[in-house]
Amino acid sequence: MGYGDLIIRSYNAQKDRVRVEDLERRCEVGPAERGFLIADTLGDPICRIKNSPVYTMLVAELGNQLVGVIQGSIKLVTLHKPPKNLARVGYILGLRVVPLYRRRGIGLRLVIELEEWFIANGVDYAYMATEKDNEASFKLFVDKLSYVEFRKPAILVNPVSRRILRISSNYEFEKLKIEEAESLYRKFMSSMEFFPNDIGNILRNKLSLGTWVAYPRGESWGATFPSSWAMLSVWNSGELFKLRLGNAPSSCLMYTQSSQLMETLFPCFKLPAIPEFWQPFGFYFVYGVYREGPLSGKLVRTLCRLVHNMAAKSKDCKVIVTEVGGSDTSRNHIPHWKFLSCPEDLWCIKAMKNEERSSLIEMMKTPPTRTLFVDPREV
Ligand SMILES: CC(C)(COP(=O)(O)OP(=O)(O)OC[C@H]1O[C@@H](n2cnc3c(N)ncnc32)[C@H](O)[C@@H]1OP(=O)(O)O)[C@@H](O)C(=O)NCCC(=O)NCCS
């Protein structure tokens, strides 16, 4: 197909909202061999990016048919790029082409148009995340558009049971004021890869439920730091969009049903019931997990229990999602369910300016830092 009859233009909510929702439904993405969670944007296809500082959504139109869509957002983050270690990055997400029109160059054209928007907005690097087994997406970005594999964070998903979990009395918790949380982030995490320069906007956003620290009982949180401590923040993603299970083998269905039956019949066993995932449900996203000291792994685990209990009391939060750097050992302390988690989410990156190419080669040579900041606005 020539490009002549294809129009790429900005999304127009009035004109496109229903058609984009329909397109999303026809393009469900996920691995065939395990369960995967699908975003349900509840009638607002742009909701996933609208908390980002700068964003756009493009649609591809052929005749009067909407055949493709892509979204992008821009922000300033930490990337190890002397002298300032700051870079303007453009995030690509939500690329979809309807099955009937695939392999005709529409996906490629959407990405190229988005890259042009990035360049016009001063972006240094574009990046995207994909399932490592998504061959079409990998070949499009890596083989065709020269993106390079960059980082492989893990997406950890934990179901929320209706039961309140016991929290050890050996630890104390504190919910931080926003200013306190921001200064803690800047002190300890600003050198993390992809740390957003506008962290204050995230913490002040109405979707941010707060930042908590945990430390051993008997010590205090104040002028000096406890011997061990951990922190994390929680974002109520379910206020923006819902999730539902896109694929589930019958073993999962049986497990869910039997766990619920066991909980009803034998509440004294305190077995966690696995929630129903077939209807759209809300979720919390945990970000900014940081820890120091010998007991900090236990403290992360305890903070996760605290978040679980908050979620258990909420109306529709059925899973807690966290994404951490591939070599971040905190993942060993974050409870998650393997069936729904993704051990290697693949991030690919490309320099948008000639002068950034050499910096990217240098960045690729350095081993990934243990910690990677995953922005809750990009989930
Ligand atoms: C990925 C996707 C957007 C590609 O759209 P598309 O319009 O078919 O892609 P294009 O026709 O522009 O393909 C460009 C190049 O990508 C690669 N590619 C695309 N689809 C491919 C496939 N199924 N298998 C192997 N390579 C593929 C090829 O290199 C292709 O070039 P070629 O046709 O000259 O060989 C589309 O398959 C899709 O919507 N998939 C489901 C959603 C998804 O996975 N999105 C990506 C999430 S990051």
UniProtKB/TrEMBL annotation:
<feature type="domain" description="N-acetyltransferase">
    <location>
        <begin position="6"/>
        <end position="178"/>
    </location>
</feature>
<dbReference type="Pfam" id="PF00583">
    <property type="entry name" value="Acetyltransf_1"/>
</dbReference>
<dbReference type="InterPro" id="IPR000182">
    <property type="entry name" value="GNAT_dom"/>
</dbReference>
<dbReference type="InterPro" id="IPR052810">
    <property type="entry name" value="Plant_NAT"/>
</dbReference>
<dbReference type="InterPro" id="IPR016181">
    <property type="entry name" value="Acyl_CoA_acyltransferase"/>
</dbReference>
<protein>
    <submittedName>
        <fullName>N-acetyltransferase HLS1-like isoform X2</fullName>
    </submittedName>
</protein>
<dbReference type="GO" id="GO:0016747">
    <property type="term" value="F:acyltransferase activity, transferring groups other than amino-acyl groups"/>
</dbReference>
